[in-house]
Amino acid sequence: MIFYHGTSKENWAKIQKEGVLWGRRFIVDENRNPIKEVDRCTYLAVDKEEANCYGDIVLRVEYDPFNSKHNNYKEGCWQVRVYEPIQIENIKIEI
């Protein structure tokens, strides 16, 4: 299936360096500064327009939610949270 992920240029460079798409969730303080890492997960949007709200770069991600139990996929949901790394070869910059 095709999903989308919005990110910044800075984070795209980190994704390329690490070789996987695997975000980080943090507890933040009142100024939105990270305090503690909660877990690693990636948010995927079902449509490109939604992903566009989350960064300068939109990634087109090939991911099969039925091939893994490490996600919260539900049919009809606008967003999926993935708790495993997605290999870089399954990701392309959406133009």
Name the descriptors.
single chain, 95 residues, alpha+beta, three-stranded antiparallel sheet
What does this structure look like?
With 95 residues, the chain is α+β, with helices and mostly antiparallel strands. The chain is 16% helix and 41% strand. The chain has helices spanning 9-18, 48-52, and strands spanning 2-7, 20-21, 24-28, 34-40, 42-45, 57-62, 79-82, 86-87, 91-93. The strands form four sheets. A three-stranded antiparallel sheet has the order 1-6-9. Strands 2-8 form a two-stranded antiparallel ribbon. The two termini are 18 Å apart.
Adjacency order of strands in the biggest sheet: 1-6-9
Structural classification: alpha+beta
Runs with pLDDT <50, length 5+? none
What sequence of helices (H) and strands (E) makes up the elements? EHEEEEHEEEE
The radius of gyration computed from the alpha-carbon positions, rounded to a whole number of angstroms, is 13 Å
Helical content (DSSP H or I, runs of 4+): 10-25%
On the 0 to 100 scale, the average pLDDT is: 95
Distance between the termini: 18 Å
